[in-house]
Design goal:
Helix 4 runs parallel beside helix 5, helix 8 packs across helix 11 and helix 11 crosses helix 12. The protein is α/β, with parallel strands linked by helices and about 400 residues long. About 35% of the residues lie in helices and about 20% in strands. The protein has two domains: about 150 residues, Rossmann fold (3-Layer(aba) Sandwich), CATH 3.40.50.720; about 230 residues, 2-Layer Sandwich (Dihydrodipicolinate Reductase, domain 2), CATH 3.30.360.10. The protein contains twelve helices and 15 strands. Strand 1, helix 1 and strand 2 form a beta-alpha-beta unit. The chain binds nicotinamide-adenine-dinucleotide. The site of nicotinamide-adenine-dinucleotide (NAD) has 25 residues, from helix 1. Nicotinamide-adenine-dinucleotide (NAD) binds next to helix 1.
Length: about 400
Amino acid sequence: MSERVIKFGLVGIGSIGQHHVNDLSKIENAVLVGVCDIDKEKADATAKAQGTTAYYDAVDLLEQSGLDVVIIAVPHYDHPFIAMEAFKRGIHVMCEKPIAVHVNAAKAMIEAYEAAKRQRPDLQFAIMFQERTLPYYAKLKAIMDSGMLGKLTRATWIHTRWFRSQAYYDSGGWRATWAGEGGGILTNQCPHTLDMYQWLFGMPDLISGHAHIGKYHDIEVEDEVTAYFEHPGGMIGHLIVTTAELPGTNRMEIVGDLGKLILENGKLLHYKYPQPMLAFTRETDQRFAEWEIAPEEIAVNANAPSGHRVVTERLIERLLGKSVDLIAEGPEGLGSLTLANGIMLSSFQKRPVTVPIDGDAFQAELEERIRTSNYVKKAVQAPAAAEDMSASFGTTK
Ligand SMILES: NC(=O)c1ccc[n+]([C@@H]2O[C@H](COP(=O)([O-])OP(=O)(O)OC[C@H]3O[C@@H](n4cnc5c(N)ncnc54)[C@H](O)[C@@H]3O)[C@@H](O)[C@H]2O)c1
């Protein structure tokens, strides 16, 4: 007897929505019972191609399609409203990243989920952090959880492989504006990077952010950011990101008392220390020292299945009653959003901020920028139809 099929509805048939449509068409236990876009032509064309029903309003899709799960793939400001409408109706949610634009909205969304779960304990809320499935990152997570490096002292991540051209920013009216998107690289490209940071190292308790607004593009939001973090255990972190660097770098250094890891160019190197570094620092008679350590390459199965489809399939397994962990529970989206908002709040206020951050202060800064914006978007250029969306996804290369 074949397994039950999970009925999906999709809201937002843009770049990533189309990717979801393609994925769902290949997943055996999934059926697309409705697609929704405020752009009627898009909704009609996709519904016709997929043999499903078109909707033009998310609430109509939720009420009329008979779906089990809604995938939310619209611009970020609309994520909370659609998710909360779904929770109210006992409908499972898979939300694209970021969970929301500001932590206040994300908290409202999580509260709505918790409240709905009291009525329907099996209600699921997943968030699309597909980078957690990338084999090198999954390996790093296993190593961090194992404590192999001992007490962590520093994590430094230079991730500038997020190149976006002016044509990219011009390809959607909502992109890279305070009112339409609510932020720049931290809100759009780096939710994955920030999620990975907090997944691997936990949340810092202090954030110092330095963001440059429209430095290399004609946009009103940030396109180059450096952040410094302090963690409760003493570890410090650095994050350097931009959408204006070619060729981009993706290099992570993780330093602990017992060893050091470097991930770059699809290679994970382990420098295993001959003795604990911190005790050596305190106790050695040598005034200067250098350890010559030949690194070992840690084997990683780079071909293990990864990406959006794995995240969707995991949710399906859970909905089919299997006892599996989601790749990312929806409420975990608050972590990366706190980092994003915290970095920007610190940058706006030109001082470090503590975590949990002041969500009202961030929201007020954001609303002030929306209110006083005089940025005018040039003519919006539609993206080339044949453009490969997967080129925009993060990799560990
Ligand atoms: N996980 C990933 O790797 C990944 C990659 C790209 C985008 N995203 C996220 O997906 C979301 C969408 O991004 P995109 O690049 O596909 O945007 P897009 O502009 O290409 O597409 C958005 C679509 O949503 C439609 N839309 C807007 N508001 C709507 C509403 N209220 N109801 C129904 N339809 C609506 C638009 O008409 C458009 O077709 C964003 O939050 C983005 O951060 C995630």
